[in-house]
Amino acid sequence: MTVFLDPLRTAGRTALDLVYPPCCVLCRGRISHDRMVICDDCRSGLLPIDAPYCERCGQPLDAPVASCPACPGRTFYFDGALSGFQFNRPLQDLIHQLKYRNRPGIGRFLGSLLAKRVEGEPGFPHITAVVPVPLHPLRKRERGYNQSAHIARGISDATGIPVLENVLVRNRNTPTQTSLSPDARMSNVEGVFEAGRVEAVRDATVSLVDDIFTTGATMNSCARVLLKAGAKRVFALTIARA
Ligand SMILES: [Zn+2]
Ligand SMILES: [Zn+2]
Q1: How far apart are CA 240 and CA 156, in angstroms?
Q2: What's the CATH code of the domain at 181?
Q3: Using an 8 Å Cβ cutoff, are 190 and 222 in contact?
Q4: Distance between CA 59 and CA 221 in Å, rounded?
Q5: Residues with Cβ within 5 Å of ion ligand 2?
Q6: Does the global pTM surpass 0.85?
Q7: Number of the ligand closest to the Cα of 67
Q8: Are 52 and 119 part of one and the same domain?
Q9: What is the per-residue pLDDT for 20?
């Protein structure tokens, strides 16, 4: 009987390993817990972004003032933004693997770390729904999954707050934003998102989730659509900021 069971078990384990590899995805060292994707040593290399930060955009500040120099004059549709961790070498490597190396489990792991980091943040009120920033269907097919949806699931694992998928729809595949100025980024994503299941977000306090906050253009565009769809408030949560 074991002869027949073993290949099955191996197949099951292989599938599981894609999601939760048994060794650290950064240094290949042993990991202490099944649901971790990195070892304790590498985990200690992930550094939180500590207060103070800008109440509008989440930019870390040297002194506790209400807003960073860039925010006056900007229109943000989200009520606040917070990024969990400094975008240092180990985190860059993790996010790269999450996006380009078929490691969705990293998203879930980082999402649960982010949830623990944000818990008890005074600027963050009671969130009632977690909404991932959607990928265009073509890009999602290429990648096999939406990394932000996995981060959102990690947040939900840690908090029990439901993830609302298909609430936002990305109707246009935008060119990559990396080389664009902040203004060009804003117009690049204008009209790109639409609300799908409008009734799901009515009166909700939404945590909008993405991997990296850069200028806030994508978050802003999504937040605007969510408010139009009836969400009460929107907060932008990201793993890191670049
Ligand atoms: Zn490691
Ligand atoms: Zn700011």
Answers
A1: 18
A2: 3.40.50.2020
A3: no
A4: 19
A5: 54, 56-57, 59, 68, 71
A6: yes
A7: 2
A8: yes
A9: 54
